[in-house]
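The aim of this short unit is practical: by the end, you should be able to scan a pair of folded records and say something sensible about each. We start with the first protein, listed as its amino acid sequence and then its structure tokens.
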Amino acid sequence: MEDDLTLMDSAEPTDNFLLQDEAWVLATLTPEQQDQYLAATESYEKMRAYLLDPTAPQEAKDLLDLAAWK
């Protein structure tokens, strides 16, 4: 298997790189769900709220880890 990153263009900033699992899950979400997922990665509080949201897709929740914020 190649690197875990889905490389876009070598000139792209690193904040535009996605893990393969993350890219796959995001591709299955609606644009609104993608925005909600990406917003959840901005802070501990937003991620916690997203993880507690019963309407958020479980596949996306499985990618997030609150421990990374501590």
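Turning to the second protein, read its sequence before its tokens, just as you did above.
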Amino acid sequence: MDTYGGGIEREYRMRKKTSPLMALFMGLLGLNAVFQMNRHHTMPEWVPASFTACYLLLAAQMVLYMRRGRTLVGARGITARRALTERSRAWHEIYDIRAEQLPKAPTNARKWLTYLYDTEGRRFVLPHMDDWQLDDPRSEVAALREAAALHRGADWERRPQVEALIRRRAGHHKAWERAITGGVVALVCGFLLWVALLFTMDHPPVLVLFLWLPLGTFAVLAALLHWRWESQVPRALREP
């Protein structure tokens, strides 16, 4: 984190580098998966080609995020810069800034993330304002809120109508996340089933296992979870 002149100007960027061994391990793991898929000649060409393209796009996005991603704070507001996009909010559009603890986070994962909430109930993560890059995210957020009070022109007070919007949007956002996760799990299960069927069938149903199964799982979960959106609201946001 860099500050300029002791005022509101701040820049939160990646200062603590990720472990080279972990990056190497993840890279080799992905390359091995690409190699294993391409060596099976019975698989349609579009399957390994699609997987390879997705892997390369994700790797490129990660590299760009590490180099370009940052949170910029100034007198006009806050800008969250990611790999390819930017999201900005002026101070009068910002409802709150909160450092929130991630429940059941693994030992080697981030425990705290910082979210910006706008007056429409939308929220997004502020890059590198977490416990990987900051020693104490909660204290940093408290100091930032104090420094920004003059620029907002209003107190950091809770508004029931905005809190209701936050809970509703958070529930639907979590529903999309879980539906996507379910689709990915279905895709992995489809791949494992395809491998097993290679020993019993000449032509396993590739299109069903690699396309319709994950898409169908995603559609069913999305519909069900959006119907039960209240159950998807994070515990920290359930209380007004």
